[in-house]
Design brief:
Shape: globular
Strand content: 25-35%
Structural class: alpha+beta
Helix content: 25-40%
Radius of gyration: 18 Å
Length: 212
C-alpha cells in the first residue's frame, strides 16, 4: 500500500484542472481495487482536487459527505459521514475547528466551545478520545494562528446503531458508521474538518456559514 500511495500521489500531483486531464486520471482510477479507490479518494481530497470529480462527472469522491442537514435541529445542524476506509493510517485523528475559535491569551476555554465538545461526544457515532486541543491553522489566505479545535479519533467501539437528535433518528447502517454531529451551525464563520498528520492539518471538508 505504501508504494501505491506514493505512485498515486505523483499521479494526482500532475493532475491539472482540465476535463481532459481528469478523465485520463479517472480511467486509471477505474482500474483500482475498492480499497485503492478509497485511498485515492483521500489523496485526491487532501491535494485539493476532489472538486474536479464533481465539476466534470458529478461524482463525490471526498472521504467526508454531508448526509443530512434539513432534519438536524430544523436545519440548524448537520451530520457528516466519514469513510474510515479512505484513510491509509491505522490510527485516524481528525479535528473540527471554526475561525471564531481563536485562543485568547491567559483566558479559560470559552463555555460555548466546551459545550460544542460535549455535544459532539453526545450525538456523534464512531468518534473516540474527543477533546479540546490548541492547533495552528490558517483560514483562507490568513497567517497561521492558534485555535481551539475539537479533536477525535475514528474508533469502532464508539460506533452507535443510531444517532438521535432532538426527536429525529438516523440509522448508522444507512448514513455511515463514523458520523460527526453538529447540532448548531448558525452564525457567520468558516469551519474545517481536517486530518491531523505530521505535516499538519490536511483539510477534508471546508465550509462557510452565514445564517442565523
Amino acid at each position: 500500500m505504501k508504494t501505491f500511495i506514493e505512485r498515486e500521489k505523483q499521479r494526482i500531483l500532475v493532475l491539472t484542472d482540465t476535463e481532459e486531464s481528469f478523465h485520463e486520471w479517472y480511467n486509471h482510477y477505474q482500474t483500482l481495487s475498492p480499497k485503492e479507490k478509497a485511498v485515492a479518494d483521500y489523496l485526491l481530497t487532501v491535494a485539493g482536487k476532489d472538486s474536479f470529480a464533481d465539476d466534470y462527472m458529478g461524482l463525490d469522491l471526498c472521504p467526508v459527505s454531508c448526509v443530512n442537514q434539513v432534519d438536524v435541529n430544523n436545519g440548524y445542524g448537520v451530520l457528516y459521514a466519514i469513510r474510515r476506509e479512505c484513510f491509509p493510517a491505522e490510527d485516524v485523528k481528525l479535528c473540527f475547528l471554526r475561525n471564531d475559535m481563536w485562543v485568547a491569551s491567559k483566558e479559560e476555554i470559552p463555555r460555548w466551545i466546551l459545550s460544542l465538545e460535549e455535544e459532539i461526544c453526545r450525538y456523534s457515532s464512531g468518534l473516540g478520545k474527543v477533546r479540546i486541543e490548541v492547533v495552528s491553522y490558517a483560514f483562507r489566505d490568513e497567517i497561521p494562528c492558534d485555535y481551539y479545535a475539537i479533536t477525535f479519533h475514528l474508533e469502532a467501539p464508539a460506533i452507535r446503531d443510531a444517532i438521535s437528535i432532538f426527536g429525529e433518528q438516523w440509522d448508522t447502517e444507512k448514513i455511515g458508521k463514523n458520523v460527526l454531529a453538529l447540532t448548531n451551525i448558525s452564525g457567520e464563520f468558516d469551519y474545517v474538518l481536517g486530518d491531523m498528520t505530521k505535516e499538519g492539518i490536511l483539510p477534508l471538508w471546508k465550509c462557510s456559514v452565514d445564517f442565523k
